[in-house]
Design brief:
With about 190 residues, this protein is α/β, with parallel strands linked by helices. The chain has helices at about 15-25, 30-40, 45-50, 60-70, 75-100, 130-140, 145-155, 160-165, 175-190, and strands at about 1-5, 30, 55, 60, 105-110, 125-130, 170. The protein folds into two domains: about 1-25 and about 105-193, 3-Layer(aba) Sandwich (Rossmann fold), CATH 3.40.50.300; about 35-100, no CATH class. It comes from Pararhizobium antarcticum.
Length: about 190
């Protein structure tokens, strides 16, 4: 089984690209979706213990947690110490299930793949990229996003040029959906044929 890692900085089109792999029948483990489910499950109690007042009614209040982290960005490590092991546990369950089914290719959608040492967990890496102006437009169009919040997120991510230099494959999403789909299809064909 080939484990393909998908990563890219915020606003580069990673989630849309992951869906394109899924549309071609490639099983996708989406780390963001896993975190979302953990924020209404296993991560709630430890996050509340570490960041009091950031959960309500059995759910992590993302706005409250984001506010706490903005006030003290050094606390990201404490959050990661809670969340990353839980995400990896779900990832292992996903991989074990697909190994048992002899699935030829799976995709791990990992936003901070390089930053968290995830390169060792995958066979090949796809980096999604686009022009910085397109990235900025996409991110600032998101509800609740501010220039300061965008800068805080970028500061925690490896620069795009470094990610591209470490990639086995690069998908440029700046040319539109059809172009990105064609690039995804080429990668899948390369890996499976």
């Amino acid at each position: 089984m080939i484990i393909l890692g998908l990563t890219g900085s915020i606003g580069m089109g990673k989630s849309t690209t992951a869906k394109m792999f899924a549309d071609l029948g490639i099983p996708v483990n989406d780390a963001d979706a896993v975190v979302h489910s953990l924020y209404s499950g296993a991560a709630v109690a430890p996050i509340e213990a570490e960041f009091p007042g950031t959960t309500q009614n059995g759910l992590v209040d993302r706005a409250a947690l984001s506010g706490a982290l903005a006030q003290n960005p050094t606390r990201f490590r404490a959050l990661e110490a809670i969340v990353h092991p839980l995400v990896r546990e779900r990832e292992m369950q996903f991989l074990d299930a697909h190994r048992a089914n002899a699935t030829p290719l799976v995709l791990l959608d990992i936003p901070l793949l390089f930053e968290t040492g995830g390169r060792d967990r995958v066979d090949r890496v796809v980096v999604v990229t686009c022009d910085p102006d397109i990235q900025r437009q996409r991110v600032l169009a998101r509800p609740g996003m501010t220039v300061d919040k965008f800068a805080l997120i970028l500061a925690r991510q490896m620069p795009d040029a470094e990610k591209r230099a470490k990639a086995d494959y690069i998908i440029d999403t700046g040319g539109g959906l059809d172009s990105a789909r064609a690039q995804v299809a080429t990668i899948v064909d390369d890996l499976l044929n």
